[in-house]
Amino acid sequence: MRMMLIFSILLMGIKFTAYVITHSNAILTDALESIINVVAGSFALFSIYYASQPKDENHPYGHGKIEYLSVGIEGGLIIIAGSGILIKSVLAFFHPAEISSLDIGVYISVFAGAANYFMGAYLLKQGKARNSSLMVADGKHLLSDTISSVGLVIGLLVIYFTKLNWLDNVIAILFGLYIFVTGYKLIKESVNSLLDEADYEKLNQVVEILNTNRREKWIDMHNLRVLKYGPHLHIDSHITLPWYDTLEDSHKEVTAVENLIKEKLEGDVEFFIHADPCLPSSCPICSVKNCPPRKAELVKQLDWTLENMLPDAKHTL
User: Where are the chain's structural domains?
Assistant: First the structure.
């Protein structure tokens, strides 16, 4: 994130230089958003440091949720920037400024767009690898900046060849609206994460891992939950095991589930598993061989899916 912050500061300076040279409101919208990138990058750097702190008595699940707060603050700043851009662009229709040296503005915007693309793709890749919502959000933001830069270059070229300078304000308004919507989406994502909205992509990963690597004694699993605390995952689940197994045997099976998830999922994973004893109603879906107290023959082993693992209810036929 230090690299992103340095990158944002340099890019901000380049964009404001382009505005000073051209006096284009469309370029100014791009430059103003760079201020947001610098402020957000500074807070993101602190957030990642804070999120990496170990658990303590006051924060038994760690400090990772500060990343979601950072995403929300970034979204709020982007909305402020978008609102300012919209107001300035509308006023510019009544107080137009002379635009000059648009060719230089085009060159700088092409460079800025390419730089945003490569940095955004890098952050997105690293964020997914480290399970960091903040890095993913910043990566998506920079990639959205790339789209803005492409539109900006096209708009500047149209103005350059048509000499219709009023289009500059129209382009600025469109980008202001786009920036405003981007900020809204980040705030929404932040609030949903703080409220522990279900991450179905991660849940599907867990279900696939369990279904593919299930063991004979894992008769049933249900009440599956995945909570995200920044780069850390907390997973809850119930597992149905043979009722006649010793506590030591059951503990071995629970540990096997936990180790499997930790091995297959990237990032720091904490797994809390509640063991349930099997009931006679479990027999038709139980594939345990040579089971002395079996009350009914195996009919079929159920495939575990997202739909049947989320509810807090044991499976039966």
Answer: 2-194, 200-309
